[in-house]
């Protein structure tokens, strides 16, 4: 290979790095907008970074370290031109639930080391998943279960921040204990009036400005007013906790030191955090990409999140995710590229180096107000009510995920959310919608007799549709339903399976089909199949099913099968009385009640 070829391949690899690709295609007219958006974004990054660090049980300064490094990491390796990553309210409780039980009196230094190791583990998971092209794993959490999870998270955050908002402390291991502690402290008069005034006032101000003046940086306004109130009224002397002077400068490259016994719990937490972070990033990327005309690249997003977490982990940071609110602020401010985030990172570093005391008079209740308002945005009560009205099963899944988070903890809650989503998919395949089809004059194809009770039938023929792959979990349900149809009086001559929805038949189902066919044949009933997909038909041939099922009973369309049956029996279409209509199986199960034998069916013949 010549040196020229080596060089060209190296350049091609460099151009594949999103940040370098942006640099080579950058337009001069974007610069002013990116710079202004970066300044505006910084006013949100600083207070939120500190607030979400404390939400995770870590020193406020680590939120700024994390913000800087994740912005730089994503700017180089993240595919989106506009997404803003950083400390996130949805990850804070998960980080705390993973790290704090392991601290065991080790102090803030050990907590930071554990959180940094957690970020590196999240990065490794993301990078490996990206290399394996596993971007689809974000789909493991269905929207109803994610809604329940976020509702539970919102309640957990809200109750967890109330003590800081009101100026006292609560020592508890679960949500019930925290709530009881809040009630007890309030009843015993432990509320610090000045702290409560700052905290509650901050919440009200953020909500009012967000509703009435959405273009105004509400967090910045609230933070400036809180600092001013502290300086003028001396709130620190009235029992209000303050952030204090932040450490000057920036941390060096640090490899976090953790114990071997910490690795298992950290890995479990990292898996949950990676999944939530990916789901959050994909949803935000999809929303903003649709508005900016970009494409969502799930695997590249995982690489970008991995790079951001890796950078944060080696500089005393903690796991990060995409922030919808900060991305929206950047977009409204005119951001065009990731240079906006780079500007924000540089400004934060300058603040830490030149004016570390800038936020020394920022009250802790003000940070609690930022977190509480963010938690309210996580909850989706209207969406939960809509689930109740539209689909009770998914409402119950959402409520179960909510209860799992609220009463068993956020890490257990995310495991429950994933498990419920997977089980719901399995449930639909286990008990799929299945029905009998008939001919409806004036409509093409064959249709569900539930939706068309007076659909015409051919005497001795039952057209049965089973809307799922046929595999070990649902094969017996299929067999029992076919047996029920065959037990009619008089029994049918053919049971024709409209098999277009059957995308697979496994070996368990194949053995069952063989036994079923032999049993039916002994009673004068014959199985027939129409519209089997070619891969499925090849499997049936490979299983040797045509030794028992007549090879002539496989048809390309339902129409051709019906025509063959009519030629054999010389029967005519009849419209049954309501009490004679073949009972549709699976009444009330999930799935569409209306359907045809398959797309592109020809008219159903005379």
Automatic annotation (TrEMBL):
Task: Could you list this entry's UniProt keywords, alphabetically sorted.
Answer: Membrane, Transmembrane, Transmembrane helix
**Biased segments, Gly residues type:** 585-598
Highest taxon listed in the record's lineage: Bacteria
Region Disordered: start-end pairs: 575-606
Transmembrane segments annotated in the record for this chain:
30-50, 56-77, 89-107, 113-136, 148-170, 190-209, 216-236, 266-290, 339-359, 366-383, 395-423
The entry's cellular-component GO terms read:
membrane
Which stretches make up the STAS domain? 451-565
Cited Pfam families: STAS, Sulfate_transp
What's the protein called, per UniProt?
Putative sulfate transporter
Report the source organism.
Streptomyces collinus (strain DSM 40733 / Tue 365)
